[in-house]
Amino acid sequence: MMMSPDVPLLNDYKQDFFLKRFPQTVLGGPRFKLGYCAPPYIYVNQIILFLMPWVWGGVGTLLYQLGILKDYYTAALSGGLMLFTAFVIQFTSLYARSKSATIERIPTMNVLAEEDEHEFTSCAGAETVRFLIPGKKYIPNTVFHSVLAGLICGLGTWYLLPNRITLLYGSIGGTTLLFFFGWMTLCIGEYSLIVNTATETATFQTEDTYEITPLMRPLYIFFFVSVDLAHRLLVMFILSAGTAITSYFISSTVGVVLFMTGFGFLLSLNLSDIGHKIGTKSKDLPSSPGKHFIWKECLFYIIILVLALLETSLLHHFAGFSQISKSSSQAIVSYGLMILLIILWILREIQSLYIFGIFRNPFYPKDVQIMTVFLEKQTRLMKIGIVRRILLTLVSPFAMIAFLSLDSSLQGLHSVSVSIGFTRAFRMVWQNTENALIETVIVSTIHLISSADIWWNRNLDTGIRLLLVGIVRDRLIQFISKLQFAVTVLLTSWTEEKQRRKRTTTLCILNIVFSPFVLVIIVFSTLLSSPLLPLFTLPLFLVGFPRPIQSWPGAAGTTACVCADTVYYYQMVPRLTAVLQTAMAAGSLGLLLPGSHYLGRFEDRLIWIIILECGYSYCCINIKGLELQETSCHTAEARRVDEVFEDAFEQEYIRVRSLNKHFGNVLTPCTILPVKLYSDARNVLSGIIDSHENLKEFKDDLVKVLVWILVQYCSKRPGMKESVHDTENKEKGPLILPALKTSLPPKSAEDIDSLNSETFDDWSDDNIFDDEPTIRKVIEEKHQLKDLPGTNLFIPGSVESQRVSDHSTGTVPENDLYKAVFLGYPAVDKGKQEDMPYIPLMEFSCSHSHLVCLPAEWRTSCMPNSKIKEMSSLFPEDWYQFVLRQLECFHSEEKASNVLEEIAKDKVLKEFYVHTVMTCYFSLFGIDNMTPRPGHILRVYSGVLPWSVALDWLTEKPELFQLALKAFRYTLKLMIDKASLGPIEDFRELIDYLEEYERDWYIGLVSEEKWKEAVLQEKPYLFSLGYDSNMGVYTGRVLSLQELLVQVGKLNAEAVKGQWANLSWELLYATNDDEERYSIQAHPLLLRNLTVQAADPPLGYPIYSSKPLHIHLH
């Protein structure tokens, strides 16, 4: 549900909480606004603790001003007093905790937790001390923080001595202000270090496990004071040490150049990934293709390194070293680099949809709706991309190495500036070749067109020039992105009606009036390379805190909100990664920079791609998958993403519409990638599943499918396959089996009633379901019944339980012939062995029938023989024989047809199949042989079978149960296919259907584990039956694996970082976790809701996040 833009940014409760937390953050920890009534001594004690550093610093300052102590003795005195005070404060806290009635372990501080009320009894009571001084969790931190407090106080006293400040700045007013605010700053830092730590606005993690937060403010103070006091000493030391080390260890200029070239190349490689692969592949077989690829890759890098070192040494040693002039060798290389840059820029731009993100590329394929035509035209572009990759990977680095090797700065004695500049330059050649080429061309162009006497050419060597140009280039790109982000936030807050608030006009006017200050904020954020934070995503801009490229703590891909839809991203990511490799190498995604963000779209899937790291011929990325169950905000922004891609790819462009009309959007379409993934189609089955004729045919088809599945299963069992060859080479004797059918006794009234009942309450004897060992014991006690009376008594469902392994011998052991399970027959008392009925013996007419015989436990029965006989009329004997004749389980083709013909005519084998098939049929439909209803179909499809006498029998045999359920699902799919494609003509066509289901389909439920396994195994098709309760219709869901087009666009990285910075501040500091808060609502240009989703948990909720994926670009 969309929220009105005038809803408060923070609700009343959060506003009160924020007003309590913010003053505490400003003052470093004192809590002067509690939200409840507290005694006055609580506030007085906090003031005393807060001013304690100033008191000890004031004592030292007074002694210094009176001339009693020197400045360093003053610093030592103040620092020592503060150290003693810090230990007293910490031990007081420990004592108060030990005196507590209930000793509790101090929990890990959770910044999301809010303050609880406290009850105070006295000024120095245990509860008061625990409130004022929570204490440290670890003893080492107690010592370290106390020592640091003394050191900070001593340095601060030395830095803020009035005489020193007056000498530095020469102003009494300035000295007074600096002295006052300086000591306020020191008091704030000391309080957060040794008394109580405030929650920082720069909160990065939800929990401060190791108590890092108390160190932040003191360390800031320490760095500023140290730099101001010792900057001259440090600079001189670094300059001297750098020059001495460089001159001493590498005295030869050739050696320096080789060192820079070699290490620059090695450090630009993905050494960790290469080492991991070598370690992994070393366990493989020597001939494995993966191992060969790794060694080929290593050989390629070794050759490149050798060639680079050879080129560097030769050019540096033999070429003339003169200042750059139009006739020099370096100038000639410069011209070549300019031409190379222009060619690479053209080749890169024609790979992408838009040039500069504004003008449509005339070379990009327009027929994207026709996949074959699009792929054909894109293949041509990819061939151009190969040329670009060769120029970028092989030609450009060696050309730039030639430019650097010919520079005159490397000929003389090396200074620190030369070492720093050229070390960075030689590495950038490989680390980021495109940017290095731009920087080199800019530096060489400036040098060629400018005078040699200007400061740039006279005082700076080429390495430092490249460094400065690189910094300017990087910050300029950031500034443009941040400025575009700020303008978008400002304009859309007014132009987008749903984003307009009551005070939007005021905010817009303030931004215009104070635009110079806004620009200063943007520039300062750019210089620090920190996010531009729009407070609550409104046009209120602040400088965020610097963050790593991935923006979140922890390794990429370690957390995700896994759900049932996650499996689709697991299947898609390996395929997508392979296609991204080609696209990145060709330049279709533009300039690859660490921290870049891309968004992919296909059907209901949204793929978020982050570039974590780039180097020579490799790129490390993280891929996230967003939720498929779309909320209203998600849907609104996903619809806008679709509109952006449709306008870019799916319309005929003419000259008038050659511009990107979505230029203000943070998403700029780049390219389309063909990826093999699942297309999701959902259909309404009304008119099919509720058709009486279809349901009637469903029953007939189910028997056929059951026969086919059971025959296929029995013929492919491992035990059967192993004995096929032996059976062909051995002469088998007759296989003797107990009979399934004998003369039938008259039906009793109870038997007739049981056939018409669905409860079978009378069938409750536990002995009916005794297991085989019990049966064996009973039979052994009967002294191996050899010859029983000749009366053929009917034993309902009796069947022998012969082992499969005994089949290969040709005869059945005498003891096993009488392992009968008496289902539906009264239990036999041990004292009445003479009443044991006679079991007549039967034999297979074909010696090979056991190869497709059902397992012994499946031939047990739970139904009266009368019911079996009644339902046997439904058994399709002609289909059964046809299925057997199609088997392929014999090595000898000549004998196969004859053997299969004999098996098909075996009546005993047929009786086994009739019994098992019809019992399964009875289990699936219940006692009444009536046309099923759609609801019944859905329940059985889902594995919920109706209760019947055969239900327990079937569920006790999990393998048979799964086969019966599989047959039921195949039959449903067959019914849908017949309704859609027409009736089946003959048995051969029916087998083709079933073989296709078995080979290419998974038919089941989305919630099943096997569904996920089928997706990961990339089954070509998946089908699931469902019911839409809102529409009241039955639905079918079909997933089809095919090569489809995924649209990819580039996101404004600064817009993403800014929104993530606000998300972190809003949730971790302001604790504004309202699910309908303003900053999470849909924004059509900023894609605010999608950006929040893509953040790492617990702040975001992507359903999939990959481990860092290493992509090779050569």
UniProtKB/TrEMBL annotation:
Its main location: membrane. Keywords: Membrane, Transmembrane, Transmembrane helix. It is a multi-pass membrane protein. GO terms for cellular component: membrane. It holds the Pfam family Pecanex_C. It is found in: Membrane. The lineage of its organism: Eukaryota, Metazoa, Chordata, Craniata, Vertebrata. It comes from the Eukaryota. Belongs to the pecanex family. Residues 952-1106 form the Pecanex C-terminal domain. InterPro entries: Pecanex, Pecanex_C. The chain crosses the membrane at residues 41-66, 72-96, 142-161, 219-242, 248-272, 293-310, 330-347, 386-406, 476-495, 507-528. This is Pecanex-like protein. It comes from Callithrix jacchus (White-tufted-ear marmoset). The keyword Protein transport does not apply.
